[in-house]
Design goal:
The protein has a single domain, classed as NAD(P)-binding Rossmann-like Domain (Rossmann fold, 3-Layer(aba) Sandwich). The chain is 42% helix and 13% strand. With 373 residues, the protein is an alpha/beta fold. The longest helix is centred in the N-terminal third of the chain and has 20 residues. Helix 6 runs parallel beside helix 7.
Length: 373
Amino acid sequence: MDGAAGFMNSFGGVFANRRVLVTGHTGFKGSWLVMWLLELGAEVAGYANGTPGSPCHFDLLGLKNRVRHFEGDVRNRDAFARALDEFRPEIVFHLAAQALVRRSFADPVTTFETNALGTLYVLEGIRDRPWIAAAVLITSDKTYRNQEWCWGYRETDALGGGDPYSGSKSCADIIVSSYFHSFIRHSGTRVAAARAGNVIGGGDWAADRLVPDCVRAWAAGQAAVVRNPQSTRPWQHVLEPLSGYLRLGAELLRNAEGINGEAFNFGPDAEVNQTVEQLLEAMIARWPGVEWSVPGGSEQSADEARLLKLSCDKALFYLDWRPMLRFAETVALTVDWYRAWHEGRGGVFELSRNQIGQYVQLGETREAVWSRH
């Protein structure tokens, strides 16, 4: 790839010199999205309530010195409005959320306030500012009422979560639809919701997530303790849904026919739906000498789904978007990032930037629609 020019030509060059605001930009997905947007030539600002902890991908990338950084809670309507007025973004990507299922049981009020009311305040800010051309609001695959089906959920399937996190995301989706039909569809602003989940990749250190928990244990020379090895998930590298979010945002800016006010799933191919055990064995194959174990008496938690997958036919039809990575490639990018970080091989900025470059090059090779100039 020809350096920055190769990045900037992706997505038709639509993000070059655009003002883009990302909420939740200090988080795992948010920091990767910000970095990709910078490589696409965008002028980026972020709005987030601090950083998720230490270590932190956002801090290791040094992104605070590369973007316009607004620190504030998405539940603070006035503070968010001030950030919008000061930066005047042309497009907003809303990722700010309380994203952990187990934490939602410990603090359901904050979870509902952040995920539901936070989305409400973002939409309220957007509808009062006609110079915002587009917004992509990210919810979750857990927005669906999980029936443990063997086929993928479609965007028309029933919403409704059985736990506080899932319920809060269902509320967020309903709020997006309500605001669109009540206010935004009559304006010049275009919006859409994006649903994805079980994202893995380098730079995630959240608690109670499989890959970060394993990395912490292995880096300390310990065996990783796994609760539910037979649970199946649509394991997806972080760059996969981000390519979908960016493709959706680009199309909202260029031509919103058929997508304005709609929701879209961004998930992996069926062969990437693997059990926890299969993911662990694939990770161990790239990180020799590490181990995992199941604690005695461990059973499937009642608050965790055993089977969950998405249908992405709608994204294929309207956006010509499809996932690219095979399961082995998803694991390789993830484990190689963590091993390089653990072993101190080079800086995190270059490590992450190189992985985005690898992904973009693969997109060109596999003729991904977003890779076209």
